[in-house]
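If your schedule permits, I should be very grateful for your opinion on a structural question. I have a record of one protein: its chain in single-letter code and its fold written as discrete structure tokens. Kindly check, if you would, that the fold set down in the tokens agrees with what the sequence suggests. I remain grateful for any guidance, and I place the record below:

***
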Amino acid sequence: LFGSAQSYVHQVLVLNEGYYDLVGGTQTIPVTLGSFDPSTGTYTTVATITGPRFGTDVLVDGASIYVAADDRVLRYDADSYALLDETEVRGVRKLAVWNDQLLITRGELGGLSHYFEVRDKIDLAFLYSIAPADGLPFSVEDVLVHENKAYLAVNNSFDWANLQGRIGAVDLVAQTYGNEVDLGLDGLNPERLMVKDGAIYAFSNKDFTGSSISKLSNGGVDYVHNVALNSGCAASALVGSKVYYMEYDQNKLARFDITTESVLDTLAESPGVYGLIEDPINNFLYATTTDYFSSGELHVLDLDGQVQSTVAVSVSPGNMALDIRSSTGIAERGAATFGVYPNPAADRIALT
């Protein structure tokens, strides 16, 4: 007998924004949360969220799934999908977890009293916020936790004439804000933050006429490189030494090599994606596509952008999260069992 323990992707959570009719002011397709099982290739809608106009983030932490949706934050059980708690947070954008705290960024047309707040991750009780008087007067998009700091992508979104390009940091121990750096005109509208070897990388969409990638280290800006034309909503991920991002002029994924500080290539076989995350366990990418009003799809891609399998989801699946768990098994030597991933597959599989 022998024992084995390994990590595996239990499920991929997909947050579908649905469709909000701006003219009629009605939600014709609701926000939904779905679960994709990589071992079977099946997708199931596990929660329908009525009321919000859209969804902005989904996060898995232990046995909990957190959803940010327009004016509220919800917590679900990761196995039963029962709604465990819900709280009002107007303008919620992105979520992160640090110890027993849930970190929340905010942005809203017309302004808010503050743009970053912290709540208890179990009962969602309010703990503290960073107010404009504390040095944060602009709305925030992404949040990245690294070494007891929450790095914030400060973009002043929705105020298109006054977009910002700043990266600030909240000291989560002292509960103070500072160390803000300005990325300049080419770094306006940062929407995604990533970390590699202690350096922070920001993907910015400027005024949606182009995109850039910035590197920050030692409290300063190392570079800001323009990488794409005709930008849209952020769909980027740092995989190894490469930042994958949408090149909207080609409607394909492209790659920026952080070691050479240059655009590496455009992935000719990739779809034009709306959402993108890495599966570090199996060396795949999960990507979504949509027509924004009637349909959406989830794709498993290899690292060259080629589609391995596809499943239908709902409308505007812009955000995803991996539920990674540990498995421990005791088996007789020689009595091996295997799982095939993805299922179905095109020309590449992984055995687990």
Remarks:
- The radius of gyration is 20 Å.
